[in-house]
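Quick start: what a row looks like.
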Amino acid sequence: MIKFVPTNGIVKSTKLDFDLLSFIFSRFVKLKRRKTLRVERSKRSYSYYYDKRKVICINTNEGTSLKFIVATLLHEVRHCMQLREECAEMNFNYTSYWNYYSSPEEKDARKFEKLATEVCKIYNQYKIIESKFKKYDLDIFKELCHNEKVDSNDLQKETNNEQQNIE
């Protein structure tokens, strides 16, 4: 299980639901034990994972979109996984950009990052369901408790329209 603990600054700049991201990541990122990772804005010109502090620093100057943040989280979580699994002798001290870019751990992290599109789709679908739940008061039993009429056709029409847009 993975738990992202974002700083106020990263939440303010991205406006993302890190609890939901934690939930989604935990469905497919399998770690031997629960991992809590702080997520904060990077003070450097790049994003990185700092293992000693268990923190992912994201360069929000590069972007704050859902896809950018998810891709960065995937990339840095992969580094966390690499360190936990002790896959091979990893050397994070590179003598050049080329050595860094072509290293096995970076190639692996970039490959893992390609899941971003699918993770974003899942995130967006959860948010749609969440908004419908609120919009149609699905947490309240209006028909049962208050003898109120609720037009379930509105929800069905909206769901059908969204399904057509997906296909």
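That is the whole record. The CA atoms of residues 63 and 69 lie 8 Å apart. The first helix runs from residue 8 to 14.
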